[in-house]
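User: Can you help me understand a structure? I only have the sequence.
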Amino acid sequence: MGCKACEVACKEWNNNPQDGTYELLESSYDNTGSLGANTWRHVAFIEQDSERIEAARESGRKLVNLGMPTIRPRTDESAGAQPLGGALGAAADGSAGSGGLPSTPPMGIDLLAPGALEPSDPEDIANLDTTPPDTADFRWLMSSDVCKHCTHAGCLDVCPTGALFRTEFDTVVVQNDVCNGCGTCVAGCPFGVIERRDDGTINTPTDRDRSASDMDVPDKNTANKCTLCYDRLVDGQEPACAQTCPTESIKFGDHDDMVDKAHARVADLHAKGLTEARLYGANPNDGVGGTGSVFLILDEPEVYGLPPDPRVPTKDLPKMYANAGIAALGMVAAVGLAFLGSRR
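Assistant: Let's start by predicting it. Here is the structure, written out as tokens:
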């Protein structure tokens, strides 16, 4: 819902400096602009009119496999094969509610009501209407972006000092006491997530009429990005953003379980007519081997500032090394033949 509670929790827990001087950017109701060395979780506000909404739904009907599911039938549902049309067909004949597709978790809670954020009995909210609102004329897309923690992480591959490492939770973390601030990892990230922290202020695209307030800036001149709260994970806690999110739109758990739930959620949205719903980062065969952070989006990835088919820069290194080796052997063979020929 765009409350930015996850942003605040991330900054507070990780002691990240502020970005600029809190002016709203001209792009929307946003004051941080994008992910960076100081903003490890960023919530963007994307405004769409009726024409863009229809275009998004049309693109959803024509989806190709870029890490996002189509609305074709799924073969792994417990209810067995569905007729052509997938979840939409199931909705049309009234079988969506009993066809094995998990129901959408209750989300329609008035967060401003007294006691709304207190623990509730699940049965008390089980009957809430979770139908998406009519968005014929206008809608907001709230995008909570974060490091993708790629299976094949470009930043990890290119780091010359070993400052980046993969944890036991399959996340990628920077060791700031090892990082020399060379910035090689910045170019290695296909998502533009990791940045080198300088004086603690990121100049977002707006005119600043005053300088940022004095602050403590930890880990100056080193690369910084989301760690998925590695220190909390080691202690058996959830990441700060997931624990803080009042609507539970940020979920944390076993990757495969989360992807299964995301597929079910997409199928549910398709059944309700939101054909634009799709997953981003759930394809293990994409250019980064899939991502640890999977997103449910309601338009094409570019609308959210995401590359449609991310590719780790080091993906072709084995082939390049093999070609270089063949070329080197060819040169050695040529020199050898030339030497033998000269002796005759």
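Now, to help you interpret it: Residues 64-117, 200-210 have pLDDT under 50 and may be disordered. The chain has one domain: 1-313. Let me know which part you'd like to focus on.
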